[in-house]
Amino acid sequence: MEPTGDHDWIKGCTLPDNTELQERTLKTDQDIVIGERCRIDYGLFGNDVVVCEFSKINGNIVASGDARIDNWCEINGDVVVEEDAYLGEGVKIQGKLVVRGDLDIGDNVQIERGFEAKGWISIRNPMPVIIYIVMYLVAVLGIEKEEDLSSVLEKIFGDDDETAPTATPLMIPGGAVLNMQTFSVPEKMAVGAGCRLHGNIRAGSISVREETTIFGSLHAREDASVARGTAVHGDVQSDGDVTIEQEAHILGNVSCKRLTLHEDARVDGVIRAPGGMKIERRTT
Predict the structure, then answer these.
(1) Which residues, in sequence order, are bridge partners of residue 49?
(2) Does the predicted model carry a pTM greater than 0.90?
(3) Which of 80, 194, 205, 259 is a Cys-bridge partner for 273, taking CB atoms 3.0 to 4.6 Å apart?
């Protein structure tokens, strides 16, 4: 199976329900998929963890399932894997590697503080991670044909919350920059319900579901939406339209083209919407 050349299907960013950024670790109960050439200045904690080539993770990786780290990635911390691990060519791990299952390891891998593997060790270059991710997504999202992958992910990253499957992985697109100050992705970003995040979010468009807390601002080049009961401890800025739903609380300013604001939402700062503002009333 050959993946699409431009990797359109991994241009969006999605954080599953109940994702938390705590103590310099991005934590989820779901799988984690990191695109190529990302820089993430904290650790990752998830089920299966997949990191594409030329990415740098400045923290520990803890996987309760498998871990796949592609060619020429650098991990500035430990890697702890409860099941099997697959390390591509040129991977550097500044800490130690602990694998409870089997280990497939490619050429020129460097592990500074040694490794421990309970199962079989095979010295070979594993399947390219980009091909593995296509196969994985086709399976986990219940897709019959690879060609349908882009349209399914478009629904996940879109505004219709009901279309997102509960097992949606945490996906970070290629070229993303994540640190304690900024969470920057190139295109769409969908944040699930019940999340707790630190940092200013910058993306093409931003959708935040209900009962999430963000300690930072939202900056969208296109549209942005903040769902019911969500709190944003910062500004909401957009070059497009912004929707703020019932019981949402913005603790800063709102600046956008047009604003739709529920009457039970709260904005502590200044509202600037030169294209107009619409007040939504409580439904009975």
Answers:
(1) 32, 67
(2) no
(3) 259
